[in-house]
Write a structure and sequence with these properties.
Helix content is 45%, strand content 10%. By secondary structure, the protein is an alpha+beta fold.
Length: 697
């Protein structure tokens, strides 16, 4: 796990010029400080420090400086300096005073008051205009991390897009390891490694998700969950009745998990929003030229050298039926998808961009692997393939006729690059989307055999097994992936969720806590870990997670109520009592929960009769309150009324079968009633849920 650098001391002056005022926060792979420019008194700047000393991180950090310094738009943060000093590299940017959209959304949600629709559209028009400017560059710049907390509103209500930590300048360039970052709920499927790579349409998805959040005050369903598990995206109009059908269509089109169905770029989405708002549509020039950057380019885009005279004089030996895509001077054979126009590798069964089935009518006579017309060698076994006539549209022009079929052709004389192997990962994704889970399993397993064994493929294989109802196989696949990637939070989360499905909450909690240690800022993950610990009765562990959550969501009444219960049952009565009194005074929880809190407080203070009355009132208001039934059982057991206690424990288990303490209470009742066999059965059920449970207490 990467640890950040110690915080820069207040008053320290970088380059003798930028004096640190305070730390603003950490994100991506850098920490950000507020500093005063000592040369220009009164000017405050934001200084971003690189926390990761690795070479790949330094390369990306320099890239961010190059990207920002080359841009000039009022909706983008402006860079003024970049340097290395002592322990790290530093990027100096204008400090944008104001609040980010996430802060405003949280405040509005607390007040249960939606933003005016025209205001929300106005903000997103400004953001789309800035991102459209990025997409207009040559080559286009893809931001890759658009979300509400990366959009800051100035005091003049101007939306400014910040943080280019994972921007990608060249859409053809392979994404670097450090740049494989995702923001749950706001990143498109392709940013998880599902389907094709990222392009301008990836930013469109994030823009749509940001608009969704601003309109509904709710984070959208994550694209990975939507694509891989069929999670539903609630239409915005169901969460905000003021969202009309035209605006909703713009949002849903931008957030389509099918990249081919989205707007082509931010400029096209901008035009759609301007039309919705009744404004003139912005007309853009077809090409924008990036101005000279502040620093020298990090790596030049190499072009292949011209052929030597001897090479250029050689005639081609055969007509090669392929199209090529050149990146850094290398070419790979492929054909154009008839639906979306994307370049598809020879042998691929599906287009990685739109998912269209490609022609696989030709199969290797040796291993039956599909191949495209014109391929000379099998991508899987390497066997020579029968020569097939490709469509005329795939032939490259040549002034030299092809050699007669009867003439022997030496392999070394044929200028052909063997086709790339089939894209089994894309094929598996296609099967998964169509609900063919067993076929998806087979494709993902093939991908692990012949393609790069990425975290995403292991996770996808585990989910495909889960959908096929083969949970043991899902667990085995994910554990195998974890052996290869022991520090992968995605695999730990997948294992945790699989264990929960298998009714193994203790094992699930172990993996969820491992994942949380690897990405401590994930609120959804912290919530799942806290809830799992709470349901297991591990109140100290749950309390730690709820405390962590309340540091970012300090007024959330549900978290505060759960924390109060954890304090009470964990023996921290002095911390719990003022929290309970505050919740009772504010009346921010449902009445049933407030009665339950009073019951637990009275129970821990020894007022058992009052506690029983509180728990019965809780059940009168909410008949499905499993914990209230459990405490009714506890009170009856304390009084030696075993039959009534047993019935209460059974009702609690019927409502929540995963509560180990209720099974243990049931075991105690059966033992007291003289049925040792049933007592042992209940005890074993408790231990199956939590093997670490001290069943003798």
């Amino acid at each position: 796990m990467q640890h950040g650098l110690p915080t820069l001391p207040l008053g320290h002056a970088l380059q003798g010029r930028y004096q640190i005022v305070k730390k603003l926060g950490s994100g991506g792979y850098g920490s950000v400080y507020l500093a005063e420019d000592l040369r220009l008194r009164g000017r405050q700047v934001a200084v971003k420090e690189l926390s990761d000393p690795s070479e790949s991180a330094q390369q990306l950090f320099k890239q961010e400086a190059q990207v920002l310094a080359a841009l000039d738009h009022p909706g983008l943060v402006r860079v003024s300096d970049f340097f290395g000093e002592g322990r790290s590299y530093y990027l100096v940017m204008d400090y944008i005073a104001g609040r980010d959209l996430l802060d405003l959304v949280i405040d509005a949600e607390k007040q249960r008051r939606h933003f005016p629709i025209d205001k929300a559209i106005d903000w997103m028009i400004q953001v789309c205009d800035a991102v459209g400017y990025l997409h207009q560059q040559q080559p286009p710049i893809i931001h890759r991390d658009i979300k509400p907390n990366n959009v800051r509103l100035t005091q003049k209500d101007r939306a400014v897009l910040v943080d280019f930590g994972i921007a990608k300048i060249d859409p053809k360039a392979k994404t670097q390891v450090m740049a494989k970052a995702v923001s749950q709920g706001f990143s498109p499927p392709e940013q998880y490694g599902l389907g094709g790579g990222t392009d301008t349409r990836s930013d469109v998805y994030a823009l749509g998700a940001t608009l969704y959040c601003v309109l509904t005050l709710t984070p959208p369903a994550d694209s990975f969950e939507r694509l891989m598990r069929g999670a539903a995206l609630t239409p915005p109009s169901q969460l905000n009745s003021k969202v009309n059908s035209v605006l909703e269509k713009v949002v849903l089109q931008a957030m389509s998990v099918n990249v081919a169905q989205r707007f082509r770029d931010a400029g096209e989405m901008l035009a759609a929003l301007q039309t919705v708002a009744g404004r003139p549509v912005t007309r853009r020039s077809s090409v924008a030229v990036i101005r000279r950057p502040l620093i020298a380019p990090i790596a030049s885009q190499h072009t292949p050298p011209p052929p030597s005279r001897s090479e250029s004089s050689k005639p081609p030996t055969a007509v090669t039926p392929q199209r090529s895509s050149t990146v850094g001077g290398s070419s790979s054979p492929g054909v154009t998808c008839p639906q979306c126009g994307a370049l598809v590798r020879l042998g691929a069964r599906f287009c990685p961009q739109c998912g269209k089935t490609m022609d696989t009518s030709h199969r290797c006579p040796n291993c039956a692997t599909p191949y495209r017309s014109g391929a000379r060698f099998c991508a899987k076994c390497g066997a020579s393939l029968p020569i097939t006539g490709p469509p005329d549209s795939e032939l490259q022009a040549s002034s030299v006729p092809a050699a007669p079929v009867s003439a022997p052709i030496a392999v070394e004389e044929v200028a052909v690059t063997p086709p790339a192997p089939p894209d089994f990962a894309a094929e598996g994704l296609q099967h998964f989307q169509a609900g063919r889970f067993k076929e998806a399993v087979a494709a993902f397993e093939s991908a692990l055999q012949v393609e790069a064994q990425s975290v995403e493929i292991y996770v996808a294989l585990g989910k495909a097994h889960t959908q096929s109802q083969d949970l043991d196989a899902a667990l085995a696949a994910l554990e195998k992936g974890l052996e290869k990637y022991p520090q992968s939070p995605e695999l730990h989360v997948a294992l945790g969720k699989t264990a929960l499905t298998m009714k193994r909450p203790a094992a699930a909690l172990e993996h969820l806590e491992q994942a949380l240690g690897l990405q401590p800022g994930d609120v959804d993950l912290a919530t799942l870990a806290a809830d799992t610990a709470f349901s297991l009765g591990r109140y100290s562990d749950a309390a730690a997670n709820f405390e962590h959550l309340l540091r970012t969501r300090s007024q959330d009444p549900i978290f505060r109520g759960r924390l109060a219960v954890c304090y009470l049952l964990g023996g921290k009565l002095s911390e719990a009592e003022p929290l309970v009194q505050d919740l009772l005074q504010q009346e921010s929880l449902p009445t049933a929960e407030l009665e339950f809190l009073k019951g637990v407080l009275n129970y821990k203070k020894g007022s058992q009769r009052w506690a029983m009355r509180n728990f019965h009132d809780t059940l009168r208001l909410d008949s499905r309150h499993a914990l209230a039934e459990f405490f009714v059982g506890e009170l009856y057991a304390d009084w030696g009324r075993w039959r009534e206690a047993l019935e209460a424990y059974e009702r609690s288990i019927a409502l929540n079968p995963g509560l180990p303490a209720a099974h243990l209470g049931l075991s105690t009742c059966w033992q007291a009633l003289g049925d040792s066999a049933k007592a042992e059965t209940s005890r074993q059920r408790a231990l199956a849920l939590d093997p670490g449970l001290d069943a003798d207490t």
